[in-house]
Design goal:
By secondary structure, the protein is α+β, with helices and mostly antiparallel strands. The protein has a single domain, classed as Roll (CBS-domain). The strands form 3 sheets. Strands 1-2 form a two-stranded antiparallel ribbon. It has a two-stranded antiparallel sheet with strand order 3-4. The two termini are 17 Å apart.
Length: 165
């Protein structure tokens, strides 16, 4: 007997009929676009998550930041101010120092992902699963009609719901 069989977990059609509101985590830890990358890295580690939604002062979803975003050299370089010197664009030395030597004071809002997969509370479980797999993402923010964050669904949430865990 497999560990899955021993746990009593089984896939049922009723499980697959669930919606985001039934499986989402309603208490979501979020970051501000004004958080530094250092602060974001510390919080993600403290919370033991690989990414978090980014919300404005009104609770509206404005992005998602992941460990990948924090590590991405391309995103950091894109956010570095540049100046022209004889037609060649060079990074400003102060900006490089700020990013690489002073603890990544670049802001979350400068590196977060803004092309987001989002779900409404009534998004079906099978659609959530497809979104996670097809977009190769680990979490989907759940928003209301005004795009205010109301929850989050992770890959783990979908798997638990599908198999009744």
């Amino acid at each position: 007997m497999s560990a899955l069989e021993e746990s009593g977990a089984t896939w049922t059609k009723a499980n697959s009929m669930k919606t985001a509101s039934e499986i989402m985590q309603a208490e979501v830890r979020t970051l501000s676009p004004d958080s530094t990358l250092r602060e974001a890295a510390e919080l993600l580690g403290l919370w033991n998550v690989s990414g978090a939604p980014v919300v404005d002062e009104y609770g509206a979803l404005v992005g998602v930041v992941s460990e990948s975003d924090l590590l991405s050299e391309a995103r950091k370089r894109a956010a570095i101010p540049r100046t022209a010197a004889f037609g060649v664009f060079l990074p400003v030395e102060d900006a490089l120092w700020r990013i690489y030597h002073e603890g990544a004071t670049l802001l979350v809002g400068e590196v977060m992902s803004t092309k987001l997969a989002m779900a409404s509370p009534d998004t079906p479980l099978d659609e959530l699963g497809r979104m996670l797999v097809n977009r190769r993402i680990n979490r989907i923010p759940v928003v209301d009609d005004s795009e205010k964050l109301v929850g989050i669904v992770t890959r783990e949430d979908v798997l638990k719901a599908l198999f009744g865990l």
